[in-house]
Amino acid sequence: MTNTDDPLRGIALVLSATLLFGIADTISKYLTSGLPIVEFIWFRYLLFLVMALVLGRKDGMKLLRPRNPGFQIARGVCVIGSSILFVYGIRVMTMAQATTISFLSPLVVTILSIPLLKETVGIRRWCAVGAGMLGMLIVVRPGLGGFQPESLFGVASSACWAMTLIITRKIANSDAPQTTVFWSAAIGTAGLTCALPFVFVIPTPTQVALATMMGVLASGGQWLVVLAHRLAPASLLAPFTYTQLLWVTVTGFLVFGNLPDEYTLLGASIIIASGLYTAHRERTRHRQQLGRG
Fold this sequence. Notes:
- The chain is mainly alpha-helical and 293 residues long.
- It has one domain (7-292).
- 76% of the residues lie in helices and 0% in strands.
- The chain has twelve helices and no strands.
- It has helices spanning 7-31, 37-55, 69-90, 95-102, 105-117, 123-140, 151-171, 177-199, 205-231, 234-237, 244-256, 262-292.
- It is globular and about 55 Å long.
- The two termini are 23 Å apart.
């Protein structure tokens, strides 16, 4: 079976994953009002680690022996940094604003691919990056009355996730996906466990249930993404990840009564359009490289 045997099923899995991620992020925002961020993210990573062990159960001790341990550690730090910074951002921002800013990651990857991956970026991709940054400025609105300093957490989160994607590219041909997932989960869980005693408060049963639900949904979303990429190429699936903005807009309204304003909608449209064009150019470039090969 090839990776493109069932692209429609792959798309369905990605759409389901974005729904789970959207609900998990909404629960995260809700929990920020009563629990330390480190504490409930620790729940999330503990369940993520369990999922990683289940995913790699057939590999046994191979999970513990990556060929690039330095890159795996760096990736794990970037993943947990992205998670924590994102939640710090959504404490005050609406779900739609925070999620829109997170869509900057593919554009930041384009920028970082030049010094880190030695890739060449053409004028059209640079224009897409510039448009995406303009969209981000419209959402953040620096210098205007609508500016929220918490949006900078979202920008930093996107940068961390972009670094995660860059590192993933570098180790894709040397370490199995199961190894990478395990190390990211293990490093995040270990780091949060060390920090937990300094912020721990006794959670209520409701908070424990919500934190557990958040971890299950987020881990389930990760699992669906892995399955989806076994059925369809990443370039086909990438555009459908933007449906997460729809889910968080709905859940944000239902739980918090928040709807995105016109600036967020305009900025989101520009960022999504630039991201889709970047994905298109990446797919075209990959086909050209295969043709030359």
